[in-house]
Amino acid sequence: MTMLARLDVSNNSLTGKVPDTIANLPNLVFLDVSDNLLSGPVPTGLFSLREGFRYSNNSGLCGMVLDIVRCPATSSSSTPLTTSKPTKSSSKLKSIMSIATAIAFAIGGSAFLILVFICLGRRNAKLRSLVFKSSSDIRSVQKAGIKTTSETKGVDAESISESPKPLHGSFHGSPPDFSILGRSRVMSGRSCASAFASTGLPSAAEWSSWMSLDELETATNYFSEKNLLRKNCQTAVYKGTLRDGTTVAVKAIYNTRYSFGEQDFQIAIEALMQVKHENLVNFLGFCCSKGGSECFLVYAFVPGDTLDHHLHGQSEMFLNWRMRVNIIRGIAKGLAHLHEGLPEPLTMVHQNLWAGNVLLDKQGNALLADYGLSDIVAEEVMYATHKTLAALGSLAPEYAHLGQVTEDCDIYAFGALILEVVTGSRAVFVDPSTRTLVSTAAWVQPLLKEGRVREVVDPTLEGRVSVTGAAALAHIALQCMSHDPGARPNMVDLARRLHACEAEWSDMPRLPGSGSGTDSFLIAATAPSGRPASFSHDSDALHRHPCR
Fold it and tell me: How far is residue 408's CA from residue 335's CA, in Å, rounded to a whole number?
């Protein structure tokens, strides 16, 4: 580090010697190693540093200055024999210890590898022995009292137009009891066998097409790096192709919550199976290892990229103003469906809403990903996720004292997303003039009050925006990001309003000036709960002036 000028490593409980090489740094002018546990001789060159060398409270240091202990002589002409013998014995002992340590590590490492190999071999053998190979296996299951769909009356699978055949999920070993959910499910005995998820049970004819872990491995080329879409410490997403040609995204979760809350885990999986919406990535199925410690969630593959990539990366698809309004409306619809579109207890909070979890298909339509995972992944994984959201500026402030993410937190994150889409800036960005972190919401608010709407909008749009629409969306975002959770609108109201006003707010005239009447779209309305609504709950009022 030839450019290093000042180095302060004081109060770090450092041990050992001060390296001689530090004294050779050409530009070093100051060094502070005080209040450590250092020992041994101090390089003499450090005492001549221009701005000083601090070394106090290191009792083991020695050197050739007045206030430090002199170093003992390394050899003496009067006692050559007594000094040479300990040196030889000491070096011999060190050699023996080094060899012994290396042998111990080699033996330990070999034993560990052998143990892993044996465990994997036994696991694979057990998996292969449990695969259903013929119709006789099906009959044996039926004899055990488990009925297939053809024998179960009154249960019909939901059909989804233009969607791939849905997957069911299954566990290895004793199948989880899904009776708490109001219906039974056939569970395969395969360690990670996955069938197809719908509200009905598979017929006998479908058993032959059930997926196994082997098929998932084949679909993803054994989870190869070439098929890896994204990855973090606890999860990874791979692109795969099933035997019927369906392209899927397989999310591998290496740390689940199954063993800590089996019932919550089952309800979470059931909720994912129930979610069907045009603005939510379609969940197709799952498979879990014994005990649920490792799970694979299978989703329909979305060929586009994330909203974060299109806004901040090198994207080939330019997001014009009309597309951005449609994206915001799509996010609102998907989030409203999660909050209120499912029956209890299957409603869910997204908990991880940011631009990286909004996928855009080839037409630019928004689909939310990574929803409904709070009761599937381990608690520490969700905690890490919330820390990331906080760093991105998308985590509601009440999380600091509540310690949990609620629907209001999702609404806060939605407001941050609106501002990101409108301004082209993340919720928190670095001001180049001051080199400090700035909240986009705090930056936008005074500009809106002064009517300087065009300064708020993403400059890459080059003014081709609806000033009225930009002002309206920015005000909605600030309302969603209110520090008072009760002052935030609910997602169903927001989705309805965005749907009603999309055409007007999507117009892109080049209007002169700043656009007077910026705040005129706000309607003083209150929901029955006392929460200010994003528009009046009176349907006549909505038709009279929903977008002003």
Answer: 11
Instruction: Return the pLDDT at 349.
Output: 93
Report how far residue 53's alpha carbon sits from residue 129's, in angstroms, rounded to the nearest whole number.
71
Task: Count how many residues are written for the chain.
Answer: 548
Segment 389-400 mean pLDDT: 89
Q: Which helix (H) or strand (E) holds 268?
A: helix 262-274
Instruction: Provide the pairing of β-strand 60-62 with 37-41.
Output: parallel
Torsion of CA 524, 528, 532, 533, to 10 degrees: -80
Q: Could you report the per-residue pLDDT of 329-386, keeping only the tens digit for each?
A: 999 999 999 999 988 878 899 999 999 999 999 999 999 999 999 888 888 888 888 8
Q: Are 289 and 295 in contact (CB under 8 A)?
A: yes
CA-based nearest residue to 529, from 500, 477, 497, 486:
486
Cα 63 to Cα 179: distance, rounded to the nearest angstrom: 78
Residue at token pair 């006998």: 204
For the beta carbon of residue 154, count every other beta carbon within 10 angstroms. Answer: 5
CA-CA distance, 371 to 354, in Å (whole number)?
11
CA distances 488 to 412, 480, 511, Å, are 8, 5, 31
Distance CA 437, CA 511 (A): 32
Element (H, E) at 496: helix 491-506
* CA-to-CA separations, 86 to 16, 75, 90, 352, 408, in angstroms, rounded: 21, 12, 6, 64, 72
Give the helix/strand (H/E) hosting 235. Answer: strand 235-241
Residue 417 in tokens: 């997303």
Sheet (strand 169-170) strand order: 169-170, 283-288, 295-300, 247-253, 235-241, 228-231
Q: d(Cα 431, Cα 482) in Å, to the nearest integer?
A: 23
Secondary structure E strands in 68-111: none
Distance CA 339, CA 328 (A): 17
Kindly tell me the sign of the dihedral angle through the C-alpha atoms of 94, 96, 102, 104: negative
pTM exceeds cut of 0.70: no
The residues that bridge with 228 in the sheet, in sequence order, are 238
Task: In whole angstroms, give the CA distance from residue 355 to residue 324.
Answer: 13
Condensed to tens digits (0 to 9), the pLDDT of residues 45-102 reads: 888 888 888 888 888 888 877 567 778 765 444 444 444 444 556 677 778 888 888 8
Q: What is the per-residue DSSP string for 426-489?
A: -SEEEETTTTEEEEHHHHHHHHHHTT-GGGTS-GGGTT-S-HHHHHHHHHHHHHHT-SSGGGSP
* Phi-psi group of 403: left, alpha or beta (phi > 0 → left; psi -120 to 50 → alpha; rest → beta): left
